[in-house]
Amino acid sequence: MILVLGLILFLGIHSVSIFAEPWRNSMVSKLGEQPWKGLYSLASLVGFVLIIYGYGQARLDPTVIYTPPVWLRHVTMLLMLPVFPMIFAAYFPGKIKATLKHPMLVATKTWALAHLLANGTLADVLLFGGFLAWAVVDRISMKRRTQRAIPGAPPGKMNDAIAVIAGLAVYVVFVLWGHTWLIGVSPISR
């Protein structure tokens, strides 16, 4: 239940622009941009903490829905390779961002799908399936709503190289140490 509550809070606050953009805009007008961002960030943080805690608790007594074949872990590792570069590309606009339009959402969908391929507990389906569904709905909704600028570097010729090099470096660090440290599971020694 804690995981579900965290997902509702985190994905709910991230869905305000999808389902209630006029309300969001009126709240920004009433409160101001910075106070709105502060409340948004606080709700996101609380949701994120609940997701982490709830997912950790659910992993203690997992409900298995499906058991993926071992070889899908390799597919997951391969699918994860472009995820961090795409995240960086959202903030370092270049050809990658121009091609993908919304690289952060593409990264989220890729991350979620990759993890659904390698993990089959109820908690995994809720977590990764929830993020995948949200990212798909968010991307579809972007065709009908006003796009707000994402803070980041100005467009430049070196931005794609920065995104790829920094993203691959983070990927390597995450595979070798970060995933084990943050999640408690090594993606390479399972």
Describe this structure in words.
- The chain has helices at residues 2-13, 16-19, 21-31, 33-60, 72-80, 83-91, 95-100, 103-118, 122-141, 159-183.
- By secondary structure, it is mainly alpha-helical.
- It folds into 2 domains: 1-61; 63-190.
- The longest helix is centred in the first third of the chain and has 28 residues, at 33-60.
- It is globular, with a radius of gyration of 18 Å.
Biggest sheet, open or closed, and with what strands and sense? none
Globally, the shape reads globular
Distance between the termini: 27 Å
Q: Overall pLDDT, averaged?
A: 93
Structural class determined from secondary elements: mainly alpha
What are the segments in which pLDDT stays under 50 over at least 5 consecutive residues? Answer: none
Number of domains: 2
Q: Which oligomeric form is depicted?
A: single chain
User: How much strand content do the residues show?
Assistant: under 5%
What letter string, H or E per element, gives the SSE order? Answer: HHHHHHHHHH
